[in-house]
Amino acid sequence: MSTPIGVIGLGAMGLGIAQSLRRAGYVVHACDVRLEAATAFAAEGGVACASPAELATHCDVLVGVVVNAAQTEAVLFGADGAAASMKPGNLFVMCSTVDPAWSVALEARLAAMDILYLDAPISGGAAKAASGQMTMMTAGRPAAYAKADGVLDAMAAKVYRLGDSAGNGSKVKIINQLLAGVHIAAAAEAMALGLREGVDAKDLYEVITHSAGNSWMFENRMAHVLAGDYTPLSAVDIFVKDLGLVLDTARATKFPLPLSATAHQMFMQASSSGHGREDDSAVIKIFPGITLPVKP
Fold first, then answer.
1. 1 DSSP assignment
2. Distance of CA 290 to the CA centre of its chain
3. Per-residue pLDDT for 117 more than 90?
4. What are the Cα distances from residue 287, in Å, to 243, 254, 273?
5. Is the Cβ–Cβ distance between 63 and 17 less than 8 Å?
6. Please, which pLDDT band fits residue 296 given cuts at 50, 70 and 90?
7. What band does 126 get if pLDDT is binned at 50, 70 and 90?
8. In which element (H, E) is residue 254 found?
9. Rounded to 10 degrees, what is the CA torsion of 254, 255, 257, 258?
10. Across all residues in the chain, what is the average pLDDT?
11. Could you tell me the pLDDT band of residue 125, with boundaries at 50, 70 and 90?
12. Domain residue spans in the chain?
């Protein structure tokens, strides 16, 4: 592939994206605040860059895979930020979960610099990112899609085009996060009640995953609880942030979200109890009087 691609952020999702792009034949430059992460990627055949600014001098398409709007702002406009080094007509693909209004404003800000932009949050987890099977919820101008031709399909199995300007990609992503957060909280509550009532955790998991009450989040996250393994694949604090974005969006138009508000408080309680950096299934630890399985 003749188009060099830059990936900023080599966390669980960003590394998988970079690997998928390499596997598709792109020359992939990468940078991360952890220099060792970029160095390790270079050892696999990628190109390590010391900063977003350096990366931007080599690449026509940049993919930002950082945690939030503040980090996206920093990698674009902070010290050694990419935006000042990007050429007219280059493209920035924003994969973070952010306030939709902020994404709309970023599109306008980059357009003033003659830089193309795609509002392109992602979903699917680290395994699907690594296999190129994740989902992208995108919105942007036709010229941005034209510049991204082939790149998005190398990153994701499903690329949804949701509008010809930024905003709808981020709106759909936070609605997805509303459901994901509520489902995890409900799954934890159900498992906690079962444990409190003396039901064997494995028996409960087996029955529920083969019954109408099952959900993808129950099946996936309660497996972590059964294993006693809270290694963060998606942390409690991610849902403190994401459900906060959900509630902020709804609050702007006075739209009630009672289930989201309750789930947000559950994740807040887990975080304030010291579990913020644990896997989001650790929200089950807020319930009193239960004995959780322990990792062997």
1. -
2. 31
3. yes
4. 20, 31, 11
5. yes
6. confident
7. confident
8. none
9. 60
10. 96
11. confident
12. 5-166, 171-286
Write the pLDDT tens digit of every residue in 23-67.
999 999 999 999 999 999 999 999 999 999 999 999 999 999 999
Bridge partners (DSSP) of residue 158 are: 135
Token pair, residue 245, equals: 């974005």
5-166 maps to which CATH number?
3.40.50.720
CATH of the domain spanning 171-286: 1.10.1040.10
d(Cα 3, Cα 25) in Å, to the nearest integer?
Answer: 10
Evaluate whether 236 touches 277 at the Cβ level (below 8 Å): yes
CA 224 remoteness from chain centre: 19
Structure tokens, 121: 């949050």
Tell me the Cα Rg of the chain: 20
Residue at token pair 């459900």: 243
Token pair of 70, please?
A: 């503040």
Place of tokens 């650790």: 282
Q: Which residues are catalytic?
A: 173
> Is the Cβ–Cβ distance between 83 and 76 less than 8 Å?
yes
Per-residue confidence (pLDDT) for residue 203, from 0 to 100: 98
d(CA 111, CA 96): 19
Instruction: Tell whether the torsion through CA atoms of 43, 231, 225 and 14 is positive or negative.
Output: negative
The pair of structure tokens assigned to 132 is 């190129």
Which segments within the chain are labelled E, that is strand?
5-8, 28-31, 47-48, 61-64, 91-94, 116-119, 122-123, 134-140, 156-161
162 membership: H or E segment, kind and range: none
| % of the chain exceeding 90 in pLDDT | 95
Residues 6+ apart with CB under 8 A from 109: none
State residue 12's pLDDT score.
Answer: 87
